[in-house]
Amino acid sequence: MWLVVFFGAAVLVALTPGANNLLGMHHAVHHGPAKAVTALVGRLVAFTLMIAAVVAGLGPILAASTTALTVIKWLGVAYLVYLAARIFFTPSQGSSAPKKGNPLRKEFLVAITNPKALLIFTAFVPQFVDPARGSVQTQLAVLGAVYLAAEVLAGTGYVTIGAIIRKADLGARAQRRLDQGTGTLLLGMAGVLATSATR
Q1: Which of 101, 158, 168, 197 is most open to solvent, judged by the fewest CB atoms within 10 Å of its CB?
Q2: CA–CA separation, 105 vs 187, rounded Å?
């Protein structure tokens, strides 16, 4: 029952609009839903590394390190600004036109440089651990796996939205407006991340 409760909470957290979910939708529009879903692997690999760190006992150390969080934060800010700039300065040719780039790598880098994602596994997940149920490390690993399932569900939802937009076969002008909106949101997220506290 506790895993069901956690899964429900995890889905709500994973569905929160963020840079990775926005990228998933953007990738579905430009690269197609199949490639966008495959790119979710990049996000999952990043989160798996974070889960492994928490299970190994390194999570609290990283979460308590102002220096580590600050470095991660500014790497994340820089990469979001870079992605926004790429979107702004890449000519739009309609949603069905082939696009260059590596969606999987982008998903990984955005996830691994997001300190808020690290806090999910160091602050949110541990709340559902009960030493009375057995090994804390085992519970953290199981909860981490359940969270990854929630992330797949949420990510696929955003990809589906992008696939619907792609199917509409937007013209270059409409596509440009959509891309400008995406770039603006990424810049906004970079700004929020830049002004957020690291502790």
Answers
A1: 197
A2: 19
Query: Would you list the DSSP string of 102-168?
Result: -HHHHHHHHHHT-HHHHHIIIIIGGGG--GGGS-HHHHHHHHHHHHHHHHHHHHHHHHHHHHHHHHT
Residue 106: what pLDDT? 93
Q: At what angle do helices 172-195 and 66-89 cross, to 10 degrees?
A: 160
Distance between CA 52 and CA 54 in Å, rounded? 5
Q: How many whole angstroms from its chain centre is CA 51?
A: 14
For position 88, what pLDDT does the model report?
84
Q: What's the CA gap between 30 and 94, in Å, rounded?
A: 8
Instruction: Look up the pTM and report it.
Output: 0.84
Which residue type sits at 52?
A
The answer to whether 150 and 7 have CB atoms below 8 angstroms apart is yes
